[in-house]
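Bumping with the actual sequence this time:
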Amino acid sequence: MPELPEVEVVRRGLAKTLTGKSFDYTRLSNWKKLPDLARVADKPVLGVSRYGKNLFIDLGKYYLVSHLGMSGFYFKTDSLKGIKHGHLAVKYANKKWLVYCDPRRFGNFKLVKKRLVPEIAKERITEGVDHLMLGPDALVGFFNNRKAAILLAERFEENSPKMAVKTALLDQTCISGIGNIYASEILFRAAISPFKPIGELTAKQIAKLADFIPRVMLAAIESKGTTIKGANKYRTVGGKTGSFTNLLEAYGRDGQVCIRCKALGKKAPKIKRVVQNQRATYYCPRCQK
């Protein structure tokens, strides 16, 4: 599933392509998750924002909210012929369209009145439609925030102290935007066990988490996200793959020596893969405490 970095890269592509253009759309399927868009037909696109894993296409009085789900993606094309799994096309120039495809159909669209959605840049969305009940954005809420550790501690306090820290990071009502890949990466770089109950985290560990959350998000955005062969089909709007795959330190490295412990030589432990709450978790059994 595309996570915050991938969605942010897509947002930038959408903003560059659509901002200032008319919302001249064509439905490519009868997909029930795509709402009636007649009321925003030909309205100017004022911009594209993001919160967590949600995209907000600004159409004046409304946001068209797009969630990519497991396999949703946008791409540019010169023709609408022969498109598989296409659901929505927006014409942005003569014989040029931006198309949304979703083979598995786990994505979602909502047309929401702006007054129902608080300012996108705020720390937390607490109003509006059900799938917008989100915790602080993992980038906006934590980047360059002197009170980031306090914010994170407050979010953890709203959950059971017995909840595993990785589970808490994946809870979108706790923190919005982190998925399975980046949860493993954040915890590895912070040297925290994914199984550690949040009630047992020290103040120092919470501070490290609050520091590494935006650092990992930004590093992944700079690399245009993560594309893993056979696991996800993520591409940028321009059709390129993400290269953060080459910078992963834990995720997908099961059976390989931990890069932090490699100085131990033959005694250096290898990254382990286990199933935690039905999701793959990658960690070092020695250095993540």
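The tokens above came from a reply further down the thread. The longest helix spans residues 203-222.
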